[in-house]
Amino acid sequence: MITPNPARRKWLNGAFVLACAGLLVFLYLAPEETTSPLPVDDLHQEFHAMESKKEADKLCVQCHSQGGESPLPENHPDPYRCLFCHKR
Ligand code: HEC
Ligand code: HEC
User: Fold this and answer.
1) Could you state, in order of their start, the residue ranges of all structural domains in the chain?
2) Model-wide pTM > 0.85
3) pLDDT averaged over 10-residue windows placed end to end, the chain, 88 residues
4) What radius of gyration, in Å, describes the C-alpha atoms of the chain?
């Protein structure tokens, strides 16, 4: 039968908590620091005013798509829910 060593177990628990905290901080900071917010200009004014982010998201691709006024960069992540990443 395996009897867990209490000291070792305590250490593992501590390491686990630290790893989780580190991951949370990473997830929280990563998109915040790099992703440009929704611009505040005439083009984007109406989207700041819109109640529903979901409705606004649908309209972004009219200009931000291949062949549009301002296409997305090549390496852009999956372009759904624009305002989830590009904060107002
Ligand atoms: C009428 C066309 C049009 C629509 C609709 C539109 N955009 Fe734009 N967007 C532009 C143009 C043109 C630019 C580049 C010039 C500028 O910054 O205004 C731009 C720039 C941007 C940028 C880059 C800002 C930067 O720092 O370079 C982001 C992010 C962006 N738009 C997000 C959005 C999102 C999210 C939506 C939908 C809620 C949206 N746009 C809807 C035309 C549009
Ligand atoms: C998963 C997060 C995410 C989603 C969802 C997302 N984007 Fe982005 N977008 C980024 C990142 C990251 C960049 C490149 C870094 C930056 O913004 O500077 C970027 C860049 C851009 C740019 C280029 C201008 C710039 O600042 O480099 C435009 C325009 C843009 N996104 C529009 C959109 C539109 C329109 C949608 C919805 C159809 C959308 N994005 C959805 C994360 C996202």
Assistant:
1) 1-34, 36-88
2) no
3) 78 86 75 79 94 91 90 88 90
4) 21
